[in-house]
Amino acid sequence: MYLTRKLKLGRTDQLDALARRAGNLWSTVTKWHWRFVDRQGYWLSKGQAQKMYCKGFDGLHSQSAQAVADSFYDSLQSWRKKQKSGTYEGLRPPYKQKRHFKVQWKSSAIKLRDDGVLRLSNGRGNDPVLIDWPSDMKPKRVEIGWDGDQYELRCQYKVEEDEEPKGTKTAGIDIGEIHLAAVYTGDESWTVNGRELRSLRRQQNHAQARLDSEIDRKEYGSRRWKRLVRAKDQQLEKIRNQIKDLLHKQSTRLIKTLHERRVGTVVVGNLTGIREGLDYGAKANQRLHQWAYSEFVQMLEYKARLHGMTVERVGEAYTSQECPSCGNRHKPHGRDYICGCGFEGHRDIVGASNIRQKYLGQDKPKGSPLRVAGEMASPTGVRYRPHMRTEPTGSDPQRCNPASSRKTSSERQECRPVG
């Protein structure tokens, strides 16, 4: 497994020059590719473009130059696939020329010196990029790009998945918008509260709408216009960082809790394409299109693998509508699932249990639904705290049940994550 580590580099003349050289090469590849298409009806292959325009390109390492062409043709291939599948109508291919572009180095151009300095080669006769590297592990791939405020180093390095799972339990996870995740392991269930994320999204939308309104009243390019644009970028970047921090802490806490509960297999519902064709009104559509389920699932997947757990995905169709007791389907209202057979349970936990059973029963004949008791125990809740640590506290998640509102002040204090 490969992980990415990021490091802020500020801005230097050397990095500016490298970004301009990469931008110049991107523009050259883009310009001539489309000229061949327009004038001769011929699509250059990636190998041809690298041989014609990247070989001997001054100012960049040979593999860094090839990586620029790789980026262009990867974008082009992605566009052609989406056009053929009809996923996005009106989507345009990569055609714009760029003044600056990210610079990438592959393994042969990367050297970690004994003094802890990362040396990135820029070809014969050019000064290398030297960076103080806070690790003794040599990266497999390095990229330097602009993050909107300064240059950022992004390094990919290999991590061995050498930790063994503590048990063989299977946990089903239903990803949601109100609850970030609902988990069912067969004998325990709990939810990860997502209201803090929704609050940050509302704050983000209100700040963007307010600042956009003020920007529109100023003359384009004026001093006040530029000041407001900078303020907007800074405020939205801060909120985006808070959202990412929340997702990391919640996913880490959830995976470590599953590891402590002796879970060996994590089954997540596949939500690919869920946003297509949805129309629930302006506000609901905005919430769904800002739903960070893909980013959250990716965090769950790689963190689970680091703990030695297997991650599987199954289709999520009708999992929140099918009764785990009798197998009948009906659309529930609200957060409670009540079936005519007498079964009652939390709607999201019903979805998690059906996802789990869908994976466990893949080899069984159809029409054999999971048989459970007539009433499913209420799930316990895990809430986010801004300063919570991602290390496991060793406490039972049931101690943090928000439904237990009659606890004393000392008992409520015990439910707060350590931070």
UniProtKB/TrEMBL annotation:
Residues 392-407 have a biased composition (Polar residues). Residues 408-419 have a biased composition (Basic and acidic residues). Keywords: Coiled coil, DNA recombination, DNA-binding, Transposition. Residues 197-249 form a coiled coil. Residues 156-274 form the Probable transposase IS891/IS1136/IS1341 domain. GO terms for biological process: DNA recombination; transposition. It comes from the Bacteria. The keyword Chloroplast does not apply. Residues 360-419 are annotated as: Disordered. GO terms for molecular function: DNA binding. In the N-terminal section; belongs to the transposase 2 family. In the C-terminal section; belongs to the transposase 35 family. PANTHER family: RNA-GUIDED DNA ENDONUCLEASE RV2885C-RELATED (PTHR30405:SF11), TRANSPOSASE (PTHR30405). This is IS605 family transposase.
